[in-house]
Design a protein that fits this description.
The protein is mainly β and 180 residues long. The chain is built from no helices and 13 strands. The strands form three sheets. Strands 3, 4, 6, 9, 10, 12 and 13 form a seven-stranded antiparallel beta sheet that branches. The protein is elongated, with a radius of gyration of 21 Å.
Length: 180
């Protein structure tokens, strides 16, 4: 995961940071920390029916422990790179997001977040990637999620998709009967 540090430079990190709007940003103001994820779904065949889709994130550290709401905004087929701050998978004003899922979390009881997104990606027709913007609106907490660079593979972000390929079966008759 790449982050922008206080100078505006990209740094590689094994954690995704989300939360607190009081973090100093590189422009001298205060920033909300938002993280982005992208999954390649180009291997899923076209015209596939998605039975179940779940985004799983693992919390590895929390600062200023409070109950929080975490939103996962999602969009399909947006091209962006980790190191290009000018292109986002979802704009801050959410104009490029299709929808979002929200979880209310008691951080004292859970360290795993599972967003069910089956209603969003119910079929796949030529989609190449699925992007997420993770944010915590109105939160004073700072949550560190494991990123794809995290040392423990089990804790890395996962997108699990269960699907049924569409199968067309052509049946022709093997005999004809004429009744009089």
């Amino acid at each position: 995961a790449y982050m922008i540090d206080s100078t505006g430079a990209f740094i590689n990190n094994d954690r995704l940071l989300v939360g607190n709007k009081n973090i100093p940003d590189f422009l001298g103001g205060k920033a909300e920390l938002i993280s982005y994820l992208k999954f390649d779904i180009s291997s899923i065949p076209d015209n596939t029916i998605i039975e179940d889709a779940t985004l799983t994130l693992f919390i590895v550290e929390v600062k200023n422990l409070t109950d929080i709401t975490v939103n996962a905004y999602h969009s399909l087929n947006q091209e962006w790179k980790e190191t290009d701050f000018n292109v986002y998978p979802c704009e801050i004003n959410l104009s490029l997001c299709n929808n979002y899922h929200s979880l209310n979390i008691n951080l004292r009881e859970t360290s795993i977040l599972k967003f069910s997104i089956s209603d969003f990606i119910h079929n796949n027709n030529g989609n190449t990637n699925l992007s997420f913007m993770i944010r915590m609106p109105n939160s004073n907490s700072l949550v560190y999620f494991a990123s794809k660079e995290y040392y423990n593979d089990i804790a890395k972000p996962r997108l699990n998709i269960k699907y049924i390929p569409q199968t067309v079966i052509e049946v022709s008759s093997s005999f004809n009967i004429t009744l009089y």
